[in-house]
Design a protein that fits this description.
Elements: E1 14-19, E2 25-30, E3 33-35, E4 38-40, E5 48-51, E6 56-58, E7 60-61, E8 76-77, E9 87-92, E10 98-103, E11 107-112, E12 118-123, E13 128-131, E14 134-138, E15 142-147, E16 153-158, E17 163-167, E18 173-177, E19 184-191, E20 197-203, E21 206-207, E22 214-215, E23 223-227, E24 232-237, E25 244-249, E26 255-260, E27 264-269, E28 275-280, E29 286-291, E30 297-302, E31 307-311
Antiparallel strand pairs: 1-2, 2-5, 3-4, 5-6, 7-8, 9-10, 10-11, 11-12, 13-14, 15-16, 16-17, 17-18, 19-20, 20-23, 21-22, 23-24, 25-26, 26-27, 27-28, 29-30, 30-31
Length: 315
């Protein structure tokens, strides 16, 4: 695409945006929002496919369903259907042939990108939790989903303080990591030069389902590093001063970035657990951080309605 392209005329706030490997397509959904202490679910629960090169939505065409006077081409629907509440995260598989999406009711779906066909549907019963010695019930919802670099597995962040590992082909839950004490908002995955699959998870701030409001939690802002093969926790990274909303591995395999409610982007050393740098400049919660393919820079954006560019160490 040459120059700047603006995609507009959406009826609800956009969430769960992912760009395909190669950058040709993007998928997105609509997340809900809070009005004071009340949660308002989105109206559109579908996941949409957008062609970034042609600047148009790619619909799922329904053959032989058009009413009299209309052509088949007039009968179109959102590409990926089946979720039933606010869409919080999407992901492309490394080969671009599949798309995964998760919602606020605890549903995970994997679709075939080309046809929009549903390949996997999984609903997860949440883990029950207690606050102040009172059972609060299971907290529904997935917050983030990522394919592993080999496309075999999916790592999902849960509102019920768990991180779950799924088989991306069958939907079978392979493991549940449960050391977090608060809602898990973000996960990231990578594969080392030796072939080890690693995952990161971070979060904080508990959510109640009934009444539908947020309450202060354990303030567990520690980021966990998991060995996805052995299912073991490798290390914790302590130092974030608020909810961790986004995580990104650096291409060098030695570092990762975190960002969130404390308005900072933080650079961590994976081997030692050391916090190397803290980047300041945002004036509100940072919702997302990404690293350039060459690892020399990062971009972040958030509630202050700004996008900031950061230079990363060359080593």
């Amino acid at each position: 695409m040459a120059g700047r392209t603006q995609l507009d005329d959406f009826r609800e706030a956009l969430d769960a945006v992912s760009v395909s490997p190669g950058g040709r397509f993007a998928v997105f959904g609509h997340g809900g929002h809070y009005e004071k202490d009340k949660w308002i679910d989105s109206v559109d629960h579908h996941v949409h496919l957008w062609d970034l090169q042609d600047n148009r939505e790619v619909y799922l065409r329904k053959k032989n369903l058009a009413p009299e006077g209309e052509t088949d081409a007039d009968k179109v629907e959102a590409r990926f259907r089946g979720l039933d509440s606010s869409v919080f995260s999407t992901a492309f598989s490394p080969d671009r042939k599949r798309v995964a999406g998760v919602d606020n009711s605890g549903t995970l779906i994997v679709w075939e990108t080309h046809s929009g066909q549903t390949l996997v549907t999984k609903w997860v019963f949440p883990v029950f939790r207690q606050i102040d010695d009172k059972e609060m019930g299971g907290i529904l919802g997935f917050k983030c989903i990522r394919f592993t670099p080999d496309g075999r597995w999916l790592l999902a962040a849960g509102a019920d303080y768990t991180v779950r590992l799924f088989d991306a082909t069958t939907g079978e839950q392979l493991h549940s990591f449960e050391s977090h004490q608060d809602t898990v908002w973000a996960v990231a995955v990578t594969q080392t030069k030796e072939g080890r699959l690693l995952g990161l998870s971070g979060g904080g701030s508990r959510d109640l389902v009934n009444p539908n409001r947020r309450i202060p939690g354990a303030r567990d802002y520690a980021i966990r590093l998991w060995d996805l093969e052995t299912r073991q926790e490798v290390r914790r990274f302590v130092g974030s001063e608020g909810e961790v909303a986004s995580l990104a591995f650096c291409p060098n395999g030695r570092h990762f970035l975190s960002a969130g409610k404390d308005k900072t982007v933080r650079l961590w050393d994976i081997a030692s657990g050391e916090l190397l740098r803290t980047y300041r400049g945002h004036t509100d919660t940072i919702r997302s951080v990404s690293v350039s393919p060459d690892g020399h820079a990062a971009v972040s954006g958030g509630n202050d309605c700004t996008i900031r560019y950061w230079r990363l160490p060359m080593k």
